[in-house]
Amino acid sequence: MDTLKNCPAPAKLNLFLHVTGRRADGYHLLQTAFQLIDRADTLDFTLREDDAIRRVTAVPGVPEEGDLIIRAARLLQQEVLRRTGALPPGVDIAIHKLLPMGGGLGGGSSDAATTLMALNALWKAGLSKDELMALGLPLGADIPFFIFGATAFAEGVGEALQPVAVPDAWYVVIEPGVQVPTASIFTSDHLTRNTPAVIMADFSGHYAEQGSTLRQFGKNDLQQVATRLFPPVAQAVEWLGAYGDARMTGSGACVFCAFHSEEQADAVLESFNAQALSATVPSTWKGWKAKALQEHPLGVVIPL
Ligand SMILES: C[C@](O)(CO)[C@H](O)COP(=O)(O)OP(=O)(O)OC[C@H]1O[C@@H](n2ccc(N)nc2=O)[C@H](O)[C@@H]1O
Ligand SMILES: Nc1ncnc2c1ncn2[C@@H]1O[C@H](COP(=O)(O)OP(=O)(O)OP(=O)(O)O)[C@@H](O)[C@H]1O
């Protein structure tokens, strides 16, 4: 096997996100729930004759050297060299981006996680799931979750993960046409950093009680800062809030709302599209639906 094509890198939603403290290094202590959804970037990996690692598709705004997929591939290549004394072959990586950057959907982290999982298989490197998660963490706080690959309750900076059951749902997601730099939210003076810690049973009990995700647990502490700094995020929360319990994912900019059925999600999107045509919704916004995923779709192809 020297190629792996159409490898999905799915998005995540943070069903809630509490900032409970701050570490000495400035990173924030979080409690969050990660939900995978079936909207994804896709990546192709083709081994090379030499040892170079190349991105063969352009990604506007992301230089090749700074791309998390290139950094993840080089990190694993060096780790294999350290373990075996032999440098694995280089690889050409093509990426088809669907997920917006600075959207809170974890696109960059998911691309990097898919890269680590695919190359671990192509190079027959044999790293365990835990080893890949630890390798990815310094590149992005969400990478361990994508390798973990299932709905999770997370603590620490998002790396202490436990599987959790959440009722099935369809989500409508609005991209309000702005990119939110994660650091600009975490460094804000307006961010509250003292939400009392919950336990996982508080979270899972909330959904068990109502039998659905229609009303979300807790809140997203990053939302009040993001809506203040980026008014389109506030407008998107207000627009989608007319249809249900709408909230921001991650550090924004995207906003989501859960529904029982695909039909209900379609009805909201119909209204979105009609209002986009009549310019009631800004032309820079995008709206789409996605289904909750119980497992990472690459796990079926490459079991870890
Ligand atoms: C907000 C979340 O999306 C929740 O899933 C993630 O924690 C953010 O993960 P990410 O985009 O991969 O962020 P990183 O690239 O790791 O960090 C970007 C910047 O955000 C700040 N940051 C990030 C995560 C965290 N727990 N505390 C922080 O203070 C740091 O200033 C960091 O330099
Ligand atoms: N492959 C990549 N895809 C997207 N962004 C990348 C990639 N590599 C590096 N980046 C950089 O990472 C930044 C954040 O992108 P990303 O899409 O992960 O944000 P996000 O969805 O807000 O993530 P999060 O939910 O983790 O905050 C981008 O603005 C870009 O500069």
Features:
single chain; 304 residues; alpha+beta; Ribosomal Protein S5, domain 2; Alpha-Beta Plaits; 2 domains; 10-stranded mixed β-sheet; binds 4-diphosphocytidyl-2-C-methyl-D-erythritol; binds adenosine-5'-triphosphate
Q: Classify the fold: give the CATH topology of the largest domain.
A: Ribosomal Protein S5, domain 2
Class from secondary-structure proportions: alpha+beta
Terminus-to-terminus distance: 17 Å
Tell me about the largest β-sheet: 10 strands, mixed
Q: Helix count?
A: 10
Helical residue percent band = 25-40%
Overall morphology = globular
Fraction in beta strands: 25-35%
Average pLDDT score: 96
- Ligand inventory: 4-diphosphocytidyl-2-C-methyl-D-erythritol, adenosine-5'-triphosphate
String of helices and strands:
EEEHEHHHEEEHHHHEEHEH
Question: Strand tally, please?
Answer: 10
What do these coordinates show?
The chain has two domains: about 5-165, Ribosomal Protein S5, domain 2; about 170-295, 2-Layer Sandwich (Alpha-Beta Plaits), CATH 3.30.70.890. With about 300 residues, it is α+β, with helices and mostly antiparallel strands. Helix 1 (about 70-85) packs parallel to helix 2 (about 105-120) and helix 7 (about 225-230) packs across helix 8 (about 230-240). The protein is built from ten helices and ten strands. Strands 1, 2, 3, 4, 5, 6, 7, 8, 9 and 10 form a ten-stranded mixed β-sheet that branches. The structure holds 4-diphosphocytidyl-2-C-methyl-D-erythritol (CDM) and adenosine-5'-triphosphate. The site of 4-diphosphocytidyl-2-C-methyl-D-erythritol has 19 residues, from strand 2 and helix 5. It holds the Pfam family GHMP_kinases_N. One of its GO terms (molecular function) is ATP binding.
